[in-house]
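Case study: Transposable element Tcb1 transposase.
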Amino acid sequence: MEDKIIRTTVKKYNVFHTCSTSAPPTTEVCHLPTVKHGSIMVWGEISWRGFGPLVILHERIKSNHYLSILEDHVHPFVQTVFPEERPLFQDGNAPIHTARYVQEWFGEHDDEVELLT
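Here is what the predicted structure looks like once written out:
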């Protein structure tokens, strides 16, 4: 049973990048665009059988964006990794996960993937 569960997560990573002070100012590395500080958020899915692509989130995720992630990433992942099977999909209870549109999507795809609640 454990090998048929798909888990998802959103993770925020802090990004710090500086140019080396020991490098001469004409070094190509010092002329690349850099982020002095900030963060990046990434969404991903994983199961015992494999993992899907990481999706970079440019802003806080909302239910309509999450719906496109389900359609563009989860659906192909299920079809590729679990052909002819019905895996269990596990996410949290965040408002975007329980939104009506998201629940409707899982209802429409119930023959392909079961939502763990």
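For the exam, be able to explain this: Residues 20 and 27 are 10 Å apart (CA to CA).
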